């Protein structure tokens, strides 16, 4: 039976513990690599296309190849985390990031580049699951939204770092395809730069305490008590451990079968997580981050100007994510998502209208705009980033980390994250085809998805602000943002 409010719980400190901030930042380093790895391809797309003589369609496949690895990495991360712990998954991800960075930089052909990108994707997928789960499990409920948002802040900082690194290398070499150091082209060094944060992430993971929920599940109550007391700020650790034990149903082994329910084979709350993930990608945010250089060059910007514009967009994304961190525990998750969906619908609609006024060449490529519609397109794109970055970007990761019950959290988050990466792959690989039809069609589609996300949040997404993780119920239904009792399992 679902609960509409948190049950009595072991009290936690009313102040934010500096130690829990530190370990949350350490876990969020996976998000930094997630963002860096996802965006580093941006500055290298044109050079890779020329280096390996790729068609536009195959370029889309090469760009999206890492995303298939992301889906696989996300799918298996939950199982590994349940069996071997959250820290072990972080270490595996750090090693895979390092291998991908070096391999991608030294790739001799398109197929081995795709392989190295898929390996990096495995790491990104694993990091996308484990960071929000770990942060939610060590955070006091009062500050969980704020700390959970560190994942998205790290992601957008990783995106910024990748774009800035790409711009610096390209400018230093006189172009991304030109040689810079050690006889290597600048685009190769962009990939290899990821090795530095990968090593830092691995070292940081070795120093993090294990999740108290995992420790209790392994009957390591003394270790869990120490983490809860020193990092989470819990005062009555015995009561909290008993509460965690009750929620875990320790006699039952955690498997993907625990996600089964009566709604198309899955529990309602699992479907909510999956659809949150899908809508986050179907609004087209990664089209901006994967193809922004190409997009801005199509509206008349040179390579350097395109890099600069993409970097400015990324800085904007960081700023609005900080705004989200300040708001998420004050006004709640659901209201932020509703505001974001409304703003994204309008912004993407403006972009669709602007590109309907574009001037194209014989091949259908945009060369210019009528009047001031080019400015409208730029404003629409950056407004979209603002609304996404302040709402759907961080809030979805917060919700995915906290909305599932303890017993199924890692597995349910893995399924939702895998769905997110598959949706990301579908949107990324389809963009060249959408663009060939027309950018008006592409951004019109994303605007429609943003409108549907508004309806979805209104009817199906619960408010979890202030709720203890142990209060979440796997069999709940949601009606207009509130948990309601379920009569079926």
Helix % is over 70%
The main β sheet shows up as:
2 strands, antiparallel
Q: What is the distance, rounded to the nearest whole angstrom, between the alpha carbons of the first and last residues?
A: 9 Å
Query: Proportion of β residues?
Result: under 5%
Q: Tell me, rounded to a whole number, the average pLDDT.
A: 75
Indicate the structural class.
mainly alpha
Tell me about this structure:
By secondary structure, the chain is mainly alpha-helical. It has a single domain, classed as Growth Hormone, Chain: A, CATH 1.20.1250.20. The strands form 3 sheets. The protein has a two-stranded antiparallel ribbon with strand order 1-2. A two-stranded antiparallel ribbon has the order 4-5. Strand 4 and strand 5 form a beta hairpin. Helix 1 runs antiparallel to helix 9, helix 5 crosses helix 18 and helix 7 runs antiparallel to helix 8. The radius of gyration is 22 Å and the shape is globular.
Concise description?
The protein has helices at 18-39, 45-51, 56-84, 86-105, 110-138, 144-148, 150-173, 186-192, 195-206, 212-217, 221-230, 237-248, 268-282, 285-298, 303-331, 333-356, 373-402, 409-437, 439-460; strands spanning 179-181, 184-185, 260-263, 358-360, 366-369, 477-479, 482-484. With 489 residues, it is mainly α. It has one domain (18-208, 252-482): MFS general substrate transporter like domains (Growth Hormone, Chain: A), CATH 1.20.1250.
């Amino acid at each position: 039976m679902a609960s509409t409010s948190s049950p009595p719980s072991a009290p936690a400190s009313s102040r934010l513990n500096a130690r829990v901030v530190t370990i949350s930042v350490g876990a969020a380093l996976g998000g930094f690599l997630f963002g860096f790895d996802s965006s580093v391809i941006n500055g290298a797309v044109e050079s890779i296309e020329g280096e390996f003589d790729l068609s536009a369609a195959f370029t889309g496949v090469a760009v999206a190849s890492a995303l298939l690895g992301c889906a696989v990495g996300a799918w298996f991360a939950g199982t590994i985390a349940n069996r071997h712990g959250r820290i072990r998954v972080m270490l595996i991800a750090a090693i895979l990031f390092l291998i991908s960075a070096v391999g991608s930089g030294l790739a001799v052909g398109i197929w081995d580049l795709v392989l190295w990108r898929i390996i990096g994707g495995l790491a990104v997928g694993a990091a996308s699951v484990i960071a929000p789960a770990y942060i939610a499990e060590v955070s006091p409920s009062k500050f969980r939204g704020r700390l959970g948002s560190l994942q998205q802040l790290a992601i957008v900082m990783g995106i910024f770092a990748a774009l800035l690194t790409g711009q610096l290398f390209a400018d230093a070499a006189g172009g991304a395809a030109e040689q810079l150091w050690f006889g290597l082209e600048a685009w190769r060094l962009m990939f290899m730069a990821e090795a530095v944060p990968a090593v830092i992430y691995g070292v940081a993971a070795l120093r993090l305490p294990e999740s108290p929920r995992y420790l209790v599940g392994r009957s390591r109550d003394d270790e869990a008590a120490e983490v809860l007391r020193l990092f989470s700020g819990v005062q009555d650790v015995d009561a909290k451990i008993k509460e965690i034990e009750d929620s875990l149903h320790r006699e039952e082994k955690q498997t993907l079968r625990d996600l089964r329910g009566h709604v198309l084979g899955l529990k309602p709350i699992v479907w909510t997580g999956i659809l949150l993930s899908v809508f986050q990608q179907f609004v087209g945010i990664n089209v901006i981050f994967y193809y922004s250089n190409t997009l801005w060059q199509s509206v008349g910007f040179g390579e350097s100007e395109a890099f600069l514009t993409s970097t400015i967009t990324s800085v904007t994304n960081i700023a609005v994510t900080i705004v989200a961190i300040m708001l998420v525990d004050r006004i709640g998750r659901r209201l932020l998502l509703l505001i974001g969906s409304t703003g994204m619908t309008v912004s993407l609609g403006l972009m669709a209208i602007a590109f309907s006024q574009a001037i194209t060449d014989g091949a259908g490529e945009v060369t210019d705009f009528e009047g001031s519609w080019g400015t409208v397109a730029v404003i629409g794109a950056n407004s979209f980033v603002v609304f996404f970055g302040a709402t759907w970007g961080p809030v979805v990761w917060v919700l995915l980390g906290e909305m599932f019950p303890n017993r199924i959290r890692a597995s349910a988050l893995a399924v939702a994250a895998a769905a997110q990466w598959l949706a990301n792959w579908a949107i990324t690989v389809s963009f060249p085809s959408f663009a060939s039809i027309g950018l008006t069609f592409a951004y019109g589609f994303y605007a429609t998805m943003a409108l549907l996300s508004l309806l979805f949040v209104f009817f199906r997404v619960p408010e979890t602000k202030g709720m203890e993780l142990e209060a979440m119920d796997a069999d709940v239904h949601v009606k207009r943002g509130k948990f309601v009792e379920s009569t079926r399992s």
